[in-house]
Amino acid sequence: MSRRKPMKALILAGGSGTRLWPASREAYPKQFLKLSGGKSLLQQTLERLLNIVSPKDILLLTNEQYKFHVLSEVNEISKDLADNILLEPARRNTAPAIALGMKYCLERLGIPPEEVLFVCPSDHIIKPVEKFVEYVKLAEKVARQGYIVAFGIKPLYPETGYGYIKITGKDLGGYYLVEKFTEKPNFETAKRFLSEGNYFWNSGMFVFTIETMIEELRLCIPEIYQLFNQPLEDMIATFPKMPDISIDYAVMEKSKKVVAIPMDIYWSDIGSWDSLYDALDKDEKANVILGDVLAKDTESCLVIGNKRLIATVDLKDLTIVETDDAILIAKRGSAQKVKHVLEELKAKNRIEAIEHRTVYRPWGECSILEEHPRYKIKRIVVKPGASIDLQIHHHWSKHWIVVKGTAKVTIGNKIMHIHENESVYVPKSTLHRLENPGEIPLEIIEVQNGDYVGEDDIIRLDDEYGRI
Amino acid sequence: MSRRKPMKALILAGGSGTRLWPASREAYPKQFLKLSGGKSLLQQTLERLLNIVSPKDILLLTNEQYKFHVLSEVNEISKDLADNILLEPARRNTAPAIALGMKYCLERLGIPPEEVLFVCPSDHIIKPVEKFVEYVKLAEKVARQGYIVAFGIKPLYPETGYGYIKITGKDLGGYYLVEKFTEKPNFETAKRFLSEGNYFWNSGMFVFTIETMIEELRLCIPEIYQLFNQPLEDMIATFPKMPDISIDYAVMEKSKKVVAIPMDIYWSDIGSWDSLYDALDKDEKANVILGDVLAKDTESCLVIGNKRLIATVDLKDLTIVETDDAILIAKRGSAQKVKHVLEELKAKNRIEAIEHRTVYRPWGECSILEEHPRYKIKRIVVKPGASIDLQIHHHWSKHWIVVKGTAKVTIGNKIMHIHENESVYVPKSTLHRLENPGEIPLEIIEVQNGDYVGEDDIIRLDDEYGRI
Fold this sequence. Notes:
The structure is a homodimer of 468-residue chains.
Chain A: E1 8-12, H1 41-49, E2 58-63, H2 67-77, E3 85-88, H3 94-107, E4 116-121, E5 125-127, H4 129-143, E6 148-153, E7 164-167, E8 176-182, H5 187-196, E9 199-209, H6 210-220, H7 222-228, H8 232-237, H9 247-252, E10 258-263, E11 266-268, H10 273-279, E12 288-290, E13 293-299, E14 302-304, E15 309-316, E16 318-322, E17 326-331, H11 338-347, E18 358-361, E19 364-371, E20 375-382, E21 387-392, E22 396-404, E23 407-411, E24 414-418, E25 423-426, E26 432-435, E27 442-450, E28 459-460
Parallel strand pairs in A: 1-2, 1-4, 2-3, 6-10, 12-14, 13-15, 14-16
Antiparallel strand pairs in A: 4-9, 5-11, 6-9, 7-8, 7-9, 8-10, 16-17, 18-19, 19-20, 20-27, 21-26, 21-28, 22-25, 22-27, 23-24, 23-26
């Protein structure tokens, strides 16, 4: 059997969804959530794809804000994945993102235009994986015939949060010509779709050859085609000019080349706490419980604990999510209202709406443990070989206590090594640098002290420390 | 008008109730809870009594475990209160506690036996205070006639958690002869009491002359009378022999001298979260909300936040209580089940069942901020002039960083002064002492580091550091 070049996969991991607040936030979106099994949705997506393609054939598209987090997540799966992480020069929708991914494949990876590309989001739940693999293999074959293949999910209820695909009746061998793509419908329309039949949820995954998609971009959305039709470097430079448009709206709704494979499979885009509850396995009382929870006479609840003990008594149909700095308690079925909570919090400039107490940086991570008007305590983890570069604070000094590993510390023009259980003092208005020269992560407790411990008292000379 | 010696008040503040878990715990019972207005129930009780008697006429009875906390609370109200804090030599019920308080009055305070004593718990809510004061003044007059005066509350519903007082029909001038005292009835009996009338809730407060009560102890409960009938010091020494019996059961149910004043007043013993909800003022949506709470479409809920943001969506009839290490979410009306949660937690040896992350010591307080297998971070506050005495830890060393005030630190045989924003290292297996020589509280961040950070690695030489 002659082997063609293998299919490539493009994972879109730049989304900033906050519908799973307080667990997901703008600075820590849904794809990074480790909700079950200890692996994030992004990692689960990667593992699913590794049943179809090899690590070097996976391209990850994200944006500047998430790059370090994506890098750290992919490294936990396979070091080979780290080579092909591409950053969007600006936040645009899926159509420009896919165009950028294709250009990268052609120019940087030397993939010929007749090659097949599988595009998928990074934050969905799909099971079982074996069945999914078979559908994708079929899609690859169909794509090689010049089609753009979408994947439809048999709708279980009149969901208004998904797009719909209407297929024609004729089975072409597990796939069907698409009659039309429909944007998110209203409830009445969604109900009609279900009763009419031949409508499927649009799962947001597509398979096509690069040349097919280029041609459809040319026909359907010339603005993108023109920006695509230049060298990668120029495309990146002019990327902000790209229209903010989804591939569904830009191409799928207009193209004559679209076919769909209806999948008999469990799929969810985890668009809310309610859909997460639906997606996860329940216990005998219909609860989904993660974390340190004592549930008494509690049924049909989703309880996600983090650090603290959660005791529940006589509850039914609730969503409870605990994080370091915020707790959500909502009626199940009202998850859509979480966005109103977020809007209110943002209007009040509440940091809980934007980021977590732990932020991820190129050199590691930093968590706020305690905040007081006159001091702040942080835990800083520096990766082996990494460093936090020179900074000056004029209003506060800090104490670093090494609780694990060895730190190489530069203060002014002094260089010293601080070992586990040793500490060092960094005075105000002094240049300083923290490095991890060792082979294990360096863990430091930092106690900041001063008359003003706001985060804007950082003059960054080189790299940044993170917002917190 | 000739002035008699003023009435004395005896506040019983030794209770260890945990029905308001997770806010109240064995090590931090209900009387210390600051639930509204920033003052604890004990402090509210003191302020209420200060409308009737002066600070020096108030005697506080508590036990060893709570002494520092009581002292600190009392000092916030009046320094004069601190003189008369009496510790129970062992935990017994209210009858032995009252006997001890009377002996102390007679022997230490030189109060004559014909003097009037007002006895009350430290953890009830009573309003309005003006009306209450009038009832107590009436009770004092009645007590001088040789009666033991109880205070009845008109029952609002067939509560099974309270004792009941049945009065005879004849109004003797705002007070009535008592036909009988009844222990907590079952629901059917309580319903019958309400329909029969002349039954009142027993509020647990009593007014009597010391000589009347002594005589009734002699008649009703000779075991206590005998132990009472010896010098204070001997009474303290033999206190553990006292029967564990309430004054209601020991005296009130048997004595012929009991009268009752029915009070037309709001009273609650805050025996559960449900009764706290009943006792507090509601907002326009019938919510009681304390703390940093964003309530969306939420009604008839009790939400008590502590440090974190709590967002509620589409909730009704829930109790939500957040503390540093535990969160309770219960249906309103199911508050009685909190005790089952506590039992389970105790069976699992969970520290959250017993104490908070902050403990109160004679020298100040200590809070755990962060716990990890290899390190622990605490905030220690030392009162001006106080000290934490010499200790040795064999498995861990610690770093102290002064964030406020000045510390006098003894390590081995070295004595040094550590100022704000300075730090000091305490090595393993070294005697050390921490003192606050200054005039303002000393605040220290302690980072413990070692291969074993269990709290049993403390060899206390002098005083103790607290369990945490």
